[in-house]
Predict the structure.
Amino acid sequence: MEEYFLSTDQISLSVIIPTYNEEKNIKKTIFSVKNQKTNLKYEILVCDGGSTDRTVEIAQDYVQVIKSPKKGKVPQINYAAKQSNGKILIFLDADTQLPENYFEIIYKKFQKNINLLACSAPHIYRSNYIISAGTIFISLILIMASSLLFGVMIFCQLMFYFFLRNKKVFPITPYFSLTQLLVLYYVARTFFKFIEFSGSNMCVRSDIFNKIGGLKPVPNSKGIDSVFSSALRKYCRYNKGEIKMTNTLAVFTDPRFISRKRILKRLQQHKKVAKYYEKIANLKNKIQR
């Protein structure tokens, strides 16, 4: 085990939650963190960007709240990271909830693999609605298609991931099909060793986060995970290290921003800003070989 993880005095995990007008979600998110089944030392930092609702009032009843001098996910996370004390930084969206074993699984992954620099878990869209028969039919088609596209091995991995490892966190909702597509997306990128994290939850060693210069500013918040993943891939290319998507965890996140129009727009934007992401995430000149 690397010396980085041998000290028991330092806080193991720092959970940083950037917020802006999240009064409807923040309490559930905080409690999903505080209800972790773990003996690890951790801290929770809610970093607010100037909410005009009751977000700060609600959050400060349970955790430490710091106010960022600048609004935005990137400046808020970077500001909170400078005040954190954990060996591992966990960036968690304010509308995302963790399974109760998240801390233990994530921390053990870092302990067992000294080359692991950062990781993330796929997200599942939660819903209070009952799934329709049509959605089930479409989902079954997607599952069969996945077996043809990615082979029996990956298909079995998906089934293992969903039905054996995560029985309690795989709801049958109207977003079942979208969840299948997202997992296929992450599996495909992992298979081709071109990993991109889920922006809902990102875990990184604090020393590595500092070395890559924190999160990078982007044209819009939808690109933060892309830029961060690109920066980490670039770092790993010139240094000994690796990043991973875990296949033993999934987090719940709110589907409030999901729409066909938004998805199509993001797909169109992805190609246009790909070169921009690469440019601002380029660390080649900063990295000591």
User: Anything to note?
Assistant: Residues 3-280 form a domain with the Spore Coat Polysaccharide Biosynthesis Protein SpsA; Chain A fold (CATH 3.90.550.10). Residues 135 and 174 are 7 Å apart (CA to CA). The chain has one domain: 3-280.
